[in-house]
Design brief:
It is built from 14 helices and no strands. Helix 5 packs antiparallel against helix 6.
Length: about 400
């Protein structure tokens, strides 16, 4: 019996059992999809502050560890708790101070720009209508085509008005949601502080759990992949933040030099959108160009110059600045990056988009190593089979 459950047959039976179990589980989930979805959303809402707190701790740990090593090396040796507390306080002061400075500098101008855009929306619509009329006269288009365009514009305006009317009754619910968000932020903040203060204990506890669950033959490789994931995420976070900040600053300077409207609003939007790989930078360029076009109908070339400027900035960042910041590529092909963004965004929304690339890099590393190991085992089995075969009989004279 043991001989029947060894080697390739054993792996085949395990694979068949896993497929059957997965098919049955998938069928059960489909039969109770609404209940499963509701339970999943409830669990996600409860667990989300904890996950966000651990993620915030991972990010804050980068400057905190730097402060511990560079600013308080002696205090760290004599009184590690005091060095940890000072480094943690400095790290939070740095991060929160930067956020507060950004809010103080950008939010008033962004709010002013949004209010100004909203107050002149009627003028923009009227100007667009005039442009459409001029274009229709120049191209001598048919009245039917012009009626289609006019109906589309009017339909869009009606939807905007309906949204504004429906938005007011929802304000109390939005206020309650804002309080819930504030509570989640507070819980995230507390969890991140505790995780950073006791990070060695948490890592040791996680290591003991992994040692108990993972087989001995795979424990070394498991910890190796954990170390690779840690370095990959650190490198990606630092590189992405510096790259986004540089893109936002260059966008703001370029818009100021070229006298384009709403530089603070658009630069802040470009900077935040650049956190999402591929989709964020190029999608934000199109929307920003539309805003510039709507606010500069007398000089529509500004929108074109903005697109050209942002393409140059993006190409310089992708090919010169970003590789230097990252210290090389993290080893994810473009098609895999796009697939990871689509899947992670569809499953987890914006948080999934932010961590899609490093997660894909770790999964690719694990999958590549598994393929190499399997191919090596197949080659070894083929060699053993060839060595164990009977030698061919000599030919008779």
């Amino acid at each position: 019996m043991k001989r029947l459950l060894t080697g390739e047959k054993r792996r085949t039976m395990i694979a068949v059992a896993a497929i059957v179990f997965g098919a049955v589980l998938f069928y059960v989930l489909l039969q109770h999809f609404s209940s499963v979805r509701a339970a999943f959303l409830t669990i996600r809402r409860v667990v989300a502050p904890i996950v966000y707190g651990l993620c915030a701790a991972f990010v804050i740990n980068l400057p905190m560890s730097l402060f511990e090593r560079k600013l308080f090396p002696r205090l760290r040796q004599k009184k590690p708790a005091a060095a940890r507390g000072l480094s943690l306080a400095l790290a939070y002061i740095l991060v929160l101070g930067f956020v507060a400075l950004l809010i103080a500098l950008v939010v008033p101008r962004v709010t002013e720009g949004v209010i100004l855009l909203s107050s002149h929306s009627g003028e923009y619509v009227e100007a667009v209508s005039k442009k459409l009329e001029e274009l229709a006269e120049k191209l001598a288009s048919s009245p039917e085509a012009y009626d289609i365009v006019e109906k589309a514009v009017n339909n869009f305006i009606d939807k905007l008005r309906a949204f504004a009317v429906d938005f007011l009754p929802k304000l109390p619910g939005i206020t309650v949601s804002a309080l819930g968000v504030l509570y989640s932020v507070l819980v995230t903040f507390v969890i991140s502080i505790h995780a950073l203060i006791y990070k060695e204990r948490l890592c040791a506890f996680a290591r003991r759990i992994a040692t108990a669950l993972v087989p001995k033959t795979h424990i070394k490789g498991f910890f190796g992949y954990c170390a690779y994931a840690n370095s990959t995420f650190k490198k990606y976070i630092v590189g992405q933040l510096l790259s986004c900040l540089l893109i936002g600053v260059l966008c703001y300077v370029g818009m100021r030099v070229l006298s384009m409207p709403y530089p603070e609003l658009i630069a802040a939007f470009i900077c935040v959108a650049a956190l999402i790989p591929i989709i964020g930078p190029w999608g934000s360029i199109g929307l920003s160009a539309f805003i510039i076009l709507m606010s500069s109908l007398n000089d529509p070339w500004k929108a074109l110059w903005f697109i050209i400027m942002m393409i140059i900035i993006q190409l310089v960042d992708d090919n010169v600045v970003y590789p230097r910041i990252m210290g090389g590529s993290i080893g994810v092909p473009g098609i895999l990056v796009l697939a990871a963004i689509i899947v992670a965004g569809g499953l987890f929304g914006i948080p999934g988009l932010l961590v899609a690339v490093p997660t894909a890099a770790v999964i690719r590393r694990v999958f590549t190593d598994w393929i190499a190991k399997r191919n090596g085992e197949r080659a070894a089995e083929a060699e053993d089979a060839g060595a164990g075969a009977d030698p061919p009989e000599p030919e008779k004279a």
